[in-house]
Amino acid sequence: MGLSYRSRRGLAAVAYAVLAALAGLMCLRLAVGVEVVKKAAGVPDNAAGGGRFINGAKALVVPMLAMTAAVAPLAIIVGGLSLLFGGRRGLQIMGTALGVLLVLGSVTAIVD
Fold first, then answer.
1. Is the separation of the CB atoms in 105 and 65 below 8 Å?
2. Is there a smaller number of Cβ atoms within 10 Å at the N or the C end of the chain?
3. Can you give the residue ranges of every domain in the chain?
4. Which DSSP string corresponds to 16-76?
5. What is the distance between the alpha carbons of residues 45 and 67, in angstroms, rounded to a whole number?
6. Above 90 in pLDDT, residue 95?
């Protein structure tokens, strides 16, 4: 691996970062997605302060918790198979799946 490979790889990383920053700026400039999430969460327009946050959190966390609970057993199986076949990241896969499930469950308990 020569110097040109490293420089191309670094240049590609910088190009991706710039592209992501530009996409983020365009979304912020055009305010894309805020109204969609607000409507999906069922947050009323007259909610103010903490009520808006709590309504949005309740409406968004419960479906995310259900999806994570559905995917977590698959991630544990994949992590176990990875360990079985000599992969190094099997425990990391399983730990991440269970950790995300635990964090989402605690957020749900805190919001309620």
1. yes
2. N
3. 47-111
4. HHHHHHHHHHHHHHHT-SHHHHHHHHT--TT--THHHHHHHHHHHHHHHHHHHHHHHHHHH
5. 28
6. yes
